[in-house]
Design brief:
The structure holds two protein chains of two kinds. Chain A is built from five helices and no strands. Chain A is mainly alpha-helical. Chain A has one domain. Chain B contains seven helices and no strands. The longest helix of chain B is centred in the N-terminal third of the chain and has 26 residues. The chains are: A mainly alpha, B mainly alpha.
Chain lengths: 142, 187
């Protein structure tokens, strides 16, 4: 890509990641949540792919790392939901097992922040891995 | 009341713009331009959601409908043809007639159903009222939508997350032996 695209995407990617971190970590206070933030993280990396090429990004975030990150996110969600059953409540038990906190602060609303982080890992890595495959795919020639 | 008038005017202008943009997307022959105009379309839908006081949906629409969708469609256009192929003129009249019949039938069905809808902002279900009133006591989250998504309706969201997880697994399984991967000998 041209120099303009490279410069703009180099400046824009940290801002996108910062906004994504805000959306995810404040998912239980302000609007948004794990899905929106995760897609935004994936968009930041896709912008880098479009500007600098797939090899540049894949050297930093490898395919197998994406797979591991994706599975980690799903595992975090399942384990955080199972904690309620360990303490004698039901699946997805939130307040009562997790602390109530102070509403309006980051550490409040029990386990919502854990679920948001897990979903961010799942969604962002899923979209990125699928995009890797889309870029790498070529028509079969006989 | 004056402010509401301006709000309605802007809302209707955006709705009309939406129709115009949709026609432009369909009529453009260069598919790369069509994808970019579709991104503008997505921005306007996001704006409409925001004006309807649904910022969560607006955020999702902006991020998915403008970010991911545009990127995926640009890659798809670059992998296939950039200029739309001319439709074959053989059964063109039949095709147009069948599409018109389906559209007219859909419009008639929608208009017969839409009179039975509850009025705007008057939902039939009352469970949303419970959520809004009790979310601070039950969960302690300021974002009621986030609390509904991950607390009241946690099973639904778990299912959605696992749907995405499984979908990517299927993509990997289907394209595992696609040519062009790095570990293929003749790539």
């Amino acid at each position: 890509m041209s120099l303009i695209v490279k410069t703009v995407s180099r400046m824009l990617t940290p801002v996108m990641l910062l906004v994504a971190a805000y959306i995810i970590l404040h998912g239980h206070i302000t609007h948004g949540g794990g899905f929106q933030g995760g897609v935004l993280v994936a968009c930041a990396f896709i912008l880098l792919i479009i500007a600098f090429g797939i090899d540049y990004v894949e050297a930093k975030v490898s395919f197998s790392f994406g797979q591991a990150f994706r599975s980690l996110g799903a595992t975090i969600i399942i384990i955080a939901a199972l904690v309620g059953m360990v303490f004698g409540f039901w699946f997805f038990k939130n307040v009562g097992v997790y602390p109530y906190g102070f509403p309006g602060e980051v550490f409040s609303a029990g386990s919502l922040i854990i679920y948001n982080l897990g979903e961010m890992a799942n969604v962002s890595a899923s979209f990125l891995v699928a995009f890797y495959f889309l870029i790498r795919f070529r028509r079969r020639r006989k | 009341m004056e402010a509401l008038g301006w709000f309605n005017l802007l809302f209707n202008v955006l709705l009309i713009l939406l129709v115009v943009l949709a026609v432009i997307v369909v009529e453009l022959k260069d598919l790369l331009y069509a994808v970019i105009v579709a991104g503008v379309y997505g921005v306007i839908i996001g704006l409409l959601y925001f004006m309807l006081q649904a910022p969560d949906i607006a955020l999702t629409q902006i991020v998915v409908g403008v970010g991911i969708q545009t990127a995926i469609l640009v890659v798809a256009v670059s992998k296939t043809l950039r200029v739309e192929e001319k439709a074959s003129g053989k059964d063109l009249g039949l095709k147009a007639a069948s599409i018109a019949a389906v559209v007219i039938l859909t419009v008639i069905l929608v208009f017969t159903v839409v009179y039975d809808f509850p009025a705007f902002g008057q939902p039939v279900e009352r469970v949303g009222q419970y959520y809004v009133e009790n979310v601070l006591k039950d969960v302690g989250a300021w974002n009621a939508v986030g609390a509904i998504v991950w607390d009241y309706r946690g099973y639904d969201t778990l299912g959605e997350t696992l749907v995405l997880f499984t979908a990517v697994i299927v993509v990997l399984a289907v394209f595992k032996h696609a040519p062009g991967k790095r570990d293929e000998p003749n790539s």
